[in-house]
Structure formats: structure tokens, C-alpha cells
Amino acid sequence: MDVGQMMRANEQNWDTRTPVHVASAFYAQDPSYWFSPYEWDDLGDVDGRSLLHLQCHIGADTVEFARRGAHVTGVDISASSLEQARRIASGHGVDISYVHANVYDVELPSSSFDIVYTAKGSLCYLPDLPRWASLIQSWLKPGGVLYVAEFHPLLNAFGPAPKPDQSEELLVRHDYLEGRGAQRKDSGHTYTDGPALSGATVSYEWAHGLGEVITAVASAGLRVTTVRESSELPWPRWSRMVRNERGWWELPADEPRVPLFYALRAVKD
Question: Is 112 helix (H, G, I), strand (E, B) or coil?
Fold first, then answer.
């Protein structure tokens, strides 16, 4: 199977996941829930700025940018997801432009965005990070910012979703580093609460170590200014995780502090 076929399988899989996600308690949070405070410190005031949100899914977090005054465009591979994203945006009384496209195929004008944002489980669905970073560089205005807020590759190596037959120990179960191509996943359930999937269950993911991400961004001509690593997650990956003051989840204080999430900021000079 070639990469194009894998991407089409992912599109069908996300179309299948969408109705489950829309009905889930997982995505019923206020849009502000999905952001760490340091993201707004790093991004600054977004009011009046043009912002491109790549792989935006149903727009649960995209809405927050529009509520803060940004001129937002969202891109996603799933037409079903974008149908719901438009409905959700309307329900919040905000105007967001949505484009149905694979990230690699989307046609957007050069130097047209102040911010390109991508977050939370996006990069694992991209097979070619150098090409991704080059496209972002072309879409950013001079002085524009790329911001990545993403699950740490160490979390992906632990396995971002628990399986019933696995122990609760911190054990490496999957690749941290890139290099072995696509990983075929076939699951009858998605990562949220809700019923089993009623359509396409197969998807393909690619491992990307933190070094690969940083190198791809820097090699595209973007200047990396910030890399943060964090021990918190927006959901309890392990049942013993405890909720912190702002509502995200962390391992108990007597356990090792390991990175589960990271943020990267880069600038187009």
C-alpha cells in the first residue's frame, strides 16, 4: 500500500470517528480547556491576527482562537469532521473558514498567515515532516509564528491509549524514533468515550522523535525560539493520574516526572 492509499484510509477512519467524537463527553469541554496557559504566553494576543489551524478535526479548540478575535482558517482531511466543525463554530457564534484537504494538498496563498497552529495528536498522521515544515514556511508571513502543541513522542512510545490487557506500568511499547515507516492500527473503538466504530477502523501512523520535529522545522528556515516539555495531559492516560489545578491530569507526585506533552514555537524571520 502506498502513502496515498494510507492517507485515504485515514480520511475514512476519521469520517467514521467523527459522530462518536461529537457525541462524547471527551469533546464536551469548553474550547478554552484544550490550551495550556503557556500557549497563550508563547502566542501572545491573537486578536486581529490571521491564523491557520492544521488538522483541526471538529474544531473543538479552533473555536477558542476565533473567540479571542483571530481570523481563523481550519484545515482537515475529514469532510465529516468539518461538517461538524462548522456546526460547532456556528453554535459559538464565531466565523471560521474551513478547508477540506490533506495538509500536503491544500492550496493556500503564500505569506498569508501570522500564525500556523497544529496540536494534540496531529503529527503522527503525517509521513513527511520536512515537506510539512516547508509548506508552513511558505504560508507564514515574515515574522509569523509556527506553534506546535503536541503529545510527546515518549507518550506515544508508552502508547497514548491503554489496552485492557496491559499493565499500568510506564513501559515502552512502541517506537519513539522515526525510521520504520507506517504503523498500521486497527481498532474498533476510538480514543473517546462512546460506542464502537461503525465504519472504517484501520488507520496509519508515523513515529516522529522530538529531534526529527525540531530538525524539520529548523531546516525549513524557521527559527526555533521555544521548546517546552510538560508532565500533564488533557485526559487520564493512566487510572492513577490526578487532576491538577487547571483540570488537566498528571502522574502522582511520588512517581517519576516524565514528559507527556510538548510545545514548540518557531518564527519566520
Answer: coil
Name the residue with higher pLDDT: 160 or 110: 110
CA 244 → CA 28, 129, 234, 247, distances in Å?
19, 33, 10, 5
Contact 189, 236 (CB under 8 A): no
What is the rounded CA–CA span in Å between residue 75 and residue 18? Answer: 15
Task: Specify the pairing of strand 261-267 against strand 140-151.
Answer: antiparallel
**Which three-class secondary structure state does DSSP give residue 202?**
strand
d(CA 196, CA 198): 6
**Cβ contact 91:105 at 8 Å:** no
What is the C-alpha to C-alpha distance for residues 94 and 73, in angstroms, rounded to an integer? Answer: 12
| SS3 of 141-154 | EEEEEEEEEEECHH
Phi, then psi, of 100 in degrees rounded to 5:
-85, 110
Q: CA Rg, the chain, in Å?
A: 18
Domains of the chain: 3-267 (3.40.50.150)
**Quick check: 165 pLDDT over 80?**
no
Question: Using one digit for the tens of pLDDT, what is the confidence trace for 1-23?
Answer: 899 999 999 999 999 999 999 99
Distance, in Å, from the CA atom of 121 to the CA atom of 101, rounded to the nearest integer, reads 17
The bridge status of strand 183-186 relative to strand 202-205 is: antiparallel
For residue 148, list its beta bridge partners.
Answer: 118, 264
What is the C-alpha to C-alpha distance for residues 16 and 211, in angstroms, rounded to an integer? 33
Residue 146 β-bridge partners: 116, 266
Q: Are 184 and 100 in contact (CB under 8 A)?
A: no
Contact (CB, 8 A) for 155 and 261: yes
pTM, full prediction: 0.95
One-letter amino acid of 106: V
